[in-house]
Write a structure and sequence with these properties.
Blueprint (H helix, E strand, L loop, with lengths): L7 E3 L25 E9 L2 E6 L2 E3 L5 E7 L8 E3 L3 H10 L2 E7 L12 H7 L14 E9 L2 E8 L2 H10 L9 H9 L3 E7 L5 E3 L2 E3 L3 E6 L4 E2 L12 E10 L2 E4 L4 E3 L4 E3 L7 H15 L4 E8 L13 H6 L13 E10 L7 E6 L2 E3 L15 E2 L4 E3 L1 E6 L15 E2 L3 H4 L5 E3 L13 H4 E2 L31 H8 L13
Parallel strand pairs: 2-15, 7-25, 17-19, 18-25, 22-24
Antiparallel strand pairs: 1-5, 2-3, 3-13, 4-12, 5-10, 6-13, 7-26, 7-27, 8-9, 9-10, 11-12, 14-21, 15-20, 16-21, 18-28, 19-20, 19-24, 22-23
Length: 492
């Protein structure tokens, strides 16, 4: 039996819906669509804890979820969560943009920190250590928050369809064949209705409490084929997996890591989500139907951090209270991103994977900044992109040290975000940005004006570079690839 959940959300008609992957059923004849999904899974041993958030906007009407589950769930297996925990997870694992300023080439050198000491400094730890007459039976009934929950078993998919229609839920066209394999596998069905009187609204959008439930199964998988019944074309699925000292990948589709450690032009900071969407789409064009790894890192640390790290209370909310307590907060956070359409042939099945490193201010033996993912002893991989501002002030020493990157000048520090995460990627604008014009293939700065030792210093600039209106500077960077400095930045 598959250790996974599929949600069939029921929500307001003509809604913009974000729910777990599955199809929508509702008490109306209007077509509902679902094109973006985010879930958080915690996996320890054979136990899976699945958390999902649900929302919709549109006319007020009954909302429900129909979820195939491997076992009968009881009241103690289900709970609601505060919505902000999903925002913290998304921000933690999201692709990130950083800005670096070249530091004064004549500043005294700081002692170099070897890689092991650096890993220790950022807190990276080593790897481990119905009704009978319809062929449907009501197995359990209980209430959790605004949800009225019924657990069903069905003898066949037609019986389940009949039960839903008898209870005034309209099944999307083509859904019955998608339901059939789960019924034949013996799945139970978790049906969670919502009382609209208990739902708060924010600018027309229902604010539903996220749901969390857990179950035990040898398999670790995520059925997603049911979602095709509501897809208007393609769907984005982001799966964040928390597991003790271990990252995950898919076992039945190709795996690819997102290109990382790319330098980009300054204008990307105002269009970072569009840039990342273009990079993601380009990656899938080169690796069709692959699932993309965007993040794998110990969950209580990050470098650079786009926000607060996950705390023990977050792990408890996401399932640590119902798994083996010996693991404490020793979780690796893996982010997998899939985009799929009608060509989907199978559900996602997960397997453990070896640690990788990438997206760090880490230089190879040839002086080039490492790009992509590499095997490692610990998981420190992230989708990280950088804007670099070369030093434009005076150089008044005989042996300047170029290519040392760090924080902005003091006058810019308060107005410059340290890290920008790319959020809500499913709705990012697409087709509006050319990757070739956004990526800079060299980070070694051009020579700065030299000032003889002892000469009067020239007035320093603001610490940022001016763009070349003719595009000549970018063209030269693309044609000439000088070696990058191996000097470590003060911020990874």
């Amino acid at each position: 039996m598959r250790a996974a959940i599929v949600v069939l959300g029921v929500c307001a008609a003509s809604a913009t819906a974000h729910a777990f992957c599955g199809f929508y059923v509702a008490g109306s004849d209007q077509q509902l669509t679902n094109d973006a999904t985010q879930v958080v899974l915690m996996r320890v041993g054979t136990r899976t804890v699945l958390s999902m958030q649900n929302d919709y906007e549109g006319p007020v009407e009954a909302f429900a979820l129909v979820v195939p589950v491997p076992v009968v769930l009881h009241e103690g297996d289900v709970k609601t969560l505060p919505k902000d925990v999903f925002a913290r997870v998304e921000q933690m694992s999201a692709p990130r943009l950083v800005e670096y300023w070249e530091q004064d080439p004549c500043a005294p050198a700081e002692p170099a920190m070897d890689q092991a000491a650096y890993e220790l400094s950022i807190g990276v730890e080593a790897a481990p250590r119905p009704d009978a007459e319809l062929g449907v039976k009501i197995e359990a009934k209980f209430a959790v928050g605004e949800y009225q929950i019924v657990i069903l078993s069905a003898t066949d998919s037609t019986s389940l369809e009949t039960w839903l229609r008898a209870n005034k839920y309209n099944i999307p066209a083509g859904a019955e064949p998608l339901l059939r394999p789960y019924v034949e596998a013996g799945s139970k069905f978790f049906v969670a209705k919502v009382d609209p009187a208990k739902v708060a609204f924010d600018h027309g959008r229902a604010v539903l409490s996220p749901l969390r439930f857990h179950y035990d199964s040898e398999d670790f998988a995520l059925p997603i084929r049911l979602g095709l019944a509501n897809s208007a074309g393609t769907q984005d699925l982001i799966v964040d997996i928390l597991a003790p000292a271990q990252r995950y990948e898919v076992a039945n589709y190709d795996n690819v890591t997102i290109p990382t450690n790319l330098d980009v032009v300054d204008s990307v900071k105002d269009r970072f989500s569009a840039f990342y969407a273009a990079l993601f789409d380009d990656t899938l064009a080169k690796h069709p139907h692959a699932v993309v790894t965007e993040y794998a890192w110990q969950a209580t640390t990050c470098d650079p951090c786009p926000g607060p790290t996950l705390q023990p209370a977050d792990f408890v909310l996401l399932g640590a209270d119902v798994v083996d307590p010996v693991h404490g907060s020793d979780f690796v956070l893996t982010r997998l991103h899939a985009r799929y359409g009608k060509e989907l042939s199978d559900d996602l099945k997960f397997r453990t994977a070896k640690p990788i490193i990438g997206g760090r201010e880490r230089f190879a033996s040839d002086g080039e900044l490492e790009e992509g993912a590499h095997p490692a002893a610990v998981n420190t991989f992230q989708a990280r992109y950088a804007i670099r501002h070369p030093w434009i002030g005076p150089i008044r020493c005989e042996q300047p040290r170029r290519g040392i990157w760090g924080d902005p000048p003091r006058e810019l520090a308060r107005s410059t975000p340290a890290v920008r995460p790319a959020l809500d990627l499913a709705s990012a604008p697409r087709g509006q940005l050319q990757l070739a014009s956004a990526i800079v293939h060299a980070s070694t700065p051009p020579p700065a004006p030299q000032v003889a030792v002892g000469a009067a210093p020239r007035k320093s600039g603001c610490g940022c570079t001016a763009s070349d209106p003719a595009g000549l500077a970018l063209a030269l960077l693309l044609l000439v690839r000088p070696k990058r400095s191996r000097a470590r930045s003060t911020r990874a």
